[in-house]
Amino acid sequence: MKFRVLGCSGGIGGARARTTAFLADDDTLIDCGTGVGDLDFDELVRIDHVFVTHSHMDHIASIPMLVDSVGEARNMPVTVYATAETIRILRSHIFNWLIWPDFTAIPDRQRPFLRFQPIRVGEPVRLGKRTITPLPAQHTVPAVAFCLDSGRGQLVYSGDTAYCPQLIEAINQLENLRHLIIETAFPDEQHGLAMASRHLCPSMLAAFLDEIVVRPQVHISHLKPGQDDLIMQQVTASIQRFSPTCLELGQVLEF
User: pLDDT at position 117, please?
Assistant: First the structure.
């Protein structure tokens, strides 16, 4: 499986700051932040599946525009996979005819441009030979992480999360884990803000990784613009075991 980074920033500001979105092979998005807008139209048309970790704007911003752009060009709806709680939020606050049209009813409910598919933690979704499984996460709204399994290797993307023992336990059960993409949104000077917003800072990331017994490559994402150099300096100083690297826009991971 090829996993292409369309966006991995914790905000906007600059030519390479795109919020979280990843393209798995050529038909599946993992989160749908502003980075999706850099795909050309033909690439957008090929997207069949969108897996959403949670409802915050930086992770869902491009869903409305994606569906609006490609709906007429496709012969099947774009399917958004999310927990029931996240789907309820998207229906109530985005696809509500006020912020954006309800594309689950356009052009009609028998042939919609968009459909929602509820998912549950621990229950895999199979897409051909690929499997995507929601894992536990802890955030200020209902949230999940994802494990992608190509059949040859695995990748875990944490989404937005605080220190989460249940996620650590799930990761430690993955015998073929090649990559771990994990957020670190704030520097240690903002530990209180990280706690309140249920994000990680470097010292919290160190405590998280101390509990990991498998040995994936660790990639750091969701760094706040303007703080990214400081965050990575602190990550490098506090964590030697995994030699974490900063995830980069345009990077492609294969597994």
Answer: 98
